[in-house]
User: Fold this.
Amino acid sequence: MTEAVTKRLGLLRQMIPKGKHVAVLTDPLVEQSQREIGAVQDALRDSGVPIRIFHANSSGEIEEAFAMMNGQGTEALFILGNSNFGSRLVQLTTLAMKYRIASSYPTRDFAEAGGLMSYGPDLADTYRQGGVYAGRMLTGDKPADLPVVQSTKFTLAINLKTAKALGLTIPETLLATADEVIQ
Assistant:
């Protein structure tokens, strides 16, 4: 999954090439967050771009984190993926627009809800893989005997309406690689 984090960060940097720093929003209660933060730090190490990490778990903490980002002049935000943030997609995309922060999200539904961009596993493909697993177990395969499967299909979605509202011009090369451009 760290490869997807690195790729998504690269896509965000293409949109905001002159960003002074990158803020990362993470839920401290999610175990995988430290590994993903490490991937972000590794990806930015040679660029000289500083990272500011914000931890938030509740709605109030998310509000506080965005207010702090705004006070620090944050231009680009990388939101780590977890189910808690997935259930708060409207709050996250609304606050990003309120404070005019170009944000990258882990799944397509964020871009549909007004987020600038998303890059992550194709959820329909992930659910299909889950169905295949369930089917194999129903036909007698033991779960311990099944191989570990990771997502192999990832999608890039860009919301042009949000880009325009933020005053961003999306590079043509990035638009050409997008799986979905939301008007």
